[in-house]
Design a protein that fits this description.
Rossmann fold; seven-stranded antiparallel beta sheet; 19% helix; 27% strand; alpha+beta; 21 strands; 405 residues; globular; disordered C terminus
Amino acid sequence: MIAEASTAARWVTAWGTSMQCRSSEPALGRPARTFCDQTLRMVIAPQIAGDSVRLRFSNRFQNDDVELDGIWVGSADGETAGAGDNRRVLFGSADRVTVLRGATAISDPVDLAIRPWARLAVSFHVGGPTTLDVHVGASQVSFLTPEGTGACGHDAAGTAFSDVVQSWYGLDGVDVLTTRPTTVLAAFGDSLTDNQGFTPGAEMGWTSQLSRRFAAHRPDIQLSVVNCGIGGGQLTRHWEPAWMDTDQLGRIWTAFGPSGAARFDNDVISRSGVDGLIMFLGGNDLALEGGVSENRVIAAMAGIVARARVSSLAVIGATLPRRHIWPEGSDGARAREAVNHWIRTSDVFDDVVDFDAATADPKTTDLLRQEFTVDGTHYTDAGATALADAFDLDCLASAGRPWLP
C-alpha cells in the first residue's frame, strides 16, 4: 500500500495528539488547571526523522484567543526538565503568537535535526490567567513552572520547571521536513489507542510499536502513525462533560471530547502529509450508557471513509475487540459482531486489520486473552504488541495503493 516516493522535501507529521477539552475541566481524574504567568515544557517523542521542525498549537475549546510567547524547542532526555540544543521558535518572524479562538497556529520552520524517537522539549509561556486545550492522558511526563515565574523557555537546565504534569497542553502536532520516502497514517481511536494501560513513558502503545516494527521491516521508508485517540471517545456522540462514578477512578469528570465525526477534519485531514487512516473507533458508541445501534455505527464509519476519500486518503478498517462487559449472546456482543462482519466483508476499506481475532481468548467466545488486558477492555504492553503484529507489513509496503505522492 506504500508506493515509491519522490525525494522532494515535504512536511509530514512526526508526532500528534488530539485535544479534547479545556484545561479548566478536571477530566478523568486529572486536576483542573488555569495558567498564570507560567511556562510549560511539553515532552514528546517524534516517530520519524527530519532536517527541520515546526510546531502546531491548538485553541479549539477556549472561549477567547490565546497568547503564547517565549516559545522554544530542544532535545529532552525524558527523565528531567532539561532541554538540549534549545532553539527559539518564531511565528511569522515574531517571537509570540495569538492562537485565535477555534483555530490552530503553525510556527515558522526551526533548523533542528530530528531523530526517530529522540524526545523533544517544547516550551512556551502563557500570561494569564489562561486556560489551554488539553489532551488528558499523555504518555510522557512534562513540566511546568510555578505561577509568576515568567518566560523560562530559554532555561536549558530546566531548573525553573519544578512541577510535573501528565497531560499535553496546547501543543497538538510536530511536523518535520524530510526528503526520505515517508508515509503518515492517522490512528483514529478511543482509549484502546490513547495509551491507556500501557507502560507510561515507554512508547509501548500499538501505534508506536507499529511504527518501530515497520522501521525494522523497511528501513528505506519512514512510517509515522499519529495517535489520534481520545480516552472515552465515541464516533457518533459528543459526550457532554459531566460527573460519573467509576470503579477504577471513583467520581470523575468525563470530558471525553467531541465525537469522531465532529473532530475528523481537525484531527486527521488537517495533519501535514497525512496519507491514510486507521479507523478504530466505535466500540464506546456500543458500550457506554445509552449505546447506539450497530447500524448507526456502520453508517458513521462509512461517512468517515467517504470524507477520507475526498482527501485521497487510503483507509484501513480495524475490527472492534471483545470487552468483558459484552458476554456471549448479549445485545452488545451481537452489535459488535455485526459491525465487525461489515468491516470484514463490505469492501469499503482498502485493507482490514483484524484486532478482534488478534486478541481474542481462544478458550472463550467473549473475552480477551488474559495476558493482553489490564481490565477486560484495555491492553497491556503485550496486548498492544498483538495489535501492532496484526498488520501485514508486506501489504503496507507494496505498491498496490499510492499512499505517497
